[in-house]
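Practice problem 4.
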């Protein structure tokens, strides 16, 4: 732990210190700034990632970015929806022997006002960095931290100047990746399969449009590694197992061979990156005033594009709770609901991603076995999943929370859902608020923001019970939606800032101040 503060070392103050400048940390910075929280973000690398890395922003994440006013800009630089598909080929220039859609990415779905996109992390991060004005210091690494009764003191080292700075923050949000320095300093272990293998991503330039423009995809799985278009205007990425002699590997030759014997294309390598595919969940997501999010909390295999998106949902869940505690309208106990709600989701997400990986390998092994045995390989291989499998909308949109921040009344608390492919909208407490059109172009999800939202067909009645001391807005709910929401003509739904339903009153309760009592119960503090 850090030594006693040295008066000769520069000091700085922040409400929240974010460690890690990837998509999760940058999104947290934007969310917290919207709440008026003083934020400092530090990232040990000198600049944003130049690698494509995470390449899918799913429909739920795009809902979050719609709330931040970023969705349209992200979509404008992403691939067209027709790229929302995976394809299996013997080599890249062969025809598909199997294919599957990324549902809610390849086309709109009625369950959401937005569509997910295929885009590269190096295109996403600049948009997220520009979305907030809070200071972000790159090339600054966390060296140590120490917690006391009032906050956390972090010792930072600037790689540009070599200077040390001690920053005092009320809370620390660790979004510093699967090899998290914060998690290591806290001694938090992980559970799960662990490292699944060493892989390399090679970004290269080659004209491959002749093979792929008629059958676009976000990713092509082949027996010689996987290929993915990086940007709409050009560049490709290959990834596969790292060779034993990686230091002396001719990456251009390797990728050129992987394209197939009939390709006659020389790949011009732009950069290569080695990485480990991890599969684990942290034993706990919080220690005192320090909270883990994203890969620091759960390292998820890449198949299915679930990892980064789970991290974005982490901070969407966490940031309003931090703001409430810091601004005094929520008690410190509200932060306990973060792990209670998100850690079960992390385990289900990890389970699904590992299952996705096994199924993908099963398809490739089945094809390899056919070719090795000299069989006449069929034009198509039957996939071990339905056409809707890679949608996973049940996991993406169907997440259900159970914690003290969800008031179930006298009903049985909902069981956590989200392991299935299909998503069934529900207005039960704990579920994500269903997307319903309030007007022609305004969704129920657009009514949400840095406040609690009360949706009711009778706003006049509920306006009489408006409580003070917490951010709250009342929104009229069209009568045609009341049955789906399980409401009578004077009922109401209380929706949290992260879009999950906190409480439901099918009819007005007899209490004089139902909103005041509900908000006090779920935030852990009287107004």
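Answer key:
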């Amino acid at each position: 732990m850090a030594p006693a503060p040295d008066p000769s070392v520069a000091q700085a103050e922040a409400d929240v210190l974010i460690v890690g400048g990837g998509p999760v940390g940058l999104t947290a910075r934007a969310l917290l700034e919207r709440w008026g929280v003083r934020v400092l973000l530090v990232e040990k690398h000198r600049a944003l990632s130049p690698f494509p890395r995470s390449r899918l922003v799913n429909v739920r994440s795009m809902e979050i970015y719609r709330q931040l006013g970023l969705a349209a800009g992200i979509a404008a630089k992403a691939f067209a929806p027709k790229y929302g598909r995976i394809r299996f080929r013997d080599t890249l220039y062969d025809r598909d022997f199997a294919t599957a859609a990324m549902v809610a990415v390849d086309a709109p779905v009625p369950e959401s006002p937005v569509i997910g996109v295929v885009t590269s992390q190096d295109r996403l991060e600049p948009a997220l960095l520009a979305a907030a004005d809070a200071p972000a210091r790159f090339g600054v690494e966390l060296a140590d931290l120490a917690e006391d009764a009032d906050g956390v003191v972090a010792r930072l080292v600037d790689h540009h100047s070599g200077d040390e700075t001690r920053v005092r923050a009320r809370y620390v949000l660790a979004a510093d990746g699967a090899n998290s320095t914060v998690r290591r300093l806290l001694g938090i272990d992980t559970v799960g399969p662990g490292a699944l293998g060493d892989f390399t991503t090679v970004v290269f330039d080659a004209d491959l449009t002749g093979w792929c423009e008629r059958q676009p995809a976000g990713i092509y799985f082949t027996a010689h590694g996987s290929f993915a278009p990086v940007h709409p205007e050009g560049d490709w990425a290959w990834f596969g197992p790292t060779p034993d002699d990686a230091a002396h590997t001719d990456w251009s030759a390797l990728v050129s061979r992987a394209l197939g014997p009939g390709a006659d294309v020389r790949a011009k390598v732009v950069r290569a990156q080695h990485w480990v595919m991890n599969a684990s969940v942290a034993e706990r997501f919080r220690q005192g005033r320090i909270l883990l999010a994203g890969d620091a909390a759960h390292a998820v295999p890449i198949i299915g594009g679930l990892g980064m998106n789970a991290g974005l949902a982490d901070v969407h869940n966490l940031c309003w709770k931090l703001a409430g505690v810091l601004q005094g309208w929520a008690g410190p106990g509200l932060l306990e609901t973060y792990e209670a709600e998100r850690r079960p989701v992390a385990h289900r997400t990890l389970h699904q991603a590992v299952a996705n990986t096994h199924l993908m390998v099963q398809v490739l092994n089945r094809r390899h076995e056919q070719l090795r045995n000299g069989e006449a390989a069929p034009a198509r291989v039957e996939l071990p999943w339905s056409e809707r499998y890679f949608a996973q909308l049940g996991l993406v949109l169907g997440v259900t929370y159970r914690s003290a921040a969800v008031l179930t009344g006298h009903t049985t608390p909902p069981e956590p859902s989200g392991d299935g492919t299909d998503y069934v909208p529900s207005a039960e407490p704990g579920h994500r608020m269903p997307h319903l059109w309030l007007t022609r172009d305004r969704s129920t999800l657009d009514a949400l923001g840095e406040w609690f939202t009360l949706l009711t067909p009778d706003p006049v009645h509920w306006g009489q019970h408006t409580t003070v001391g917490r951010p709250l807005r009342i929104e009229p709910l069209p009568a045609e939606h009341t049955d789906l929401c399980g409401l009578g003509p004077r009922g109401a739904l209380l929706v949290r800032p992260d879009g999950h339903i906190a409480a439901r009153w099918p009819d007005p309760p007899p209490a004089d101040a139902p909103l005041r009592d509900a908000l006090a119960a779920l935030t852990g503090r009287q107004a």
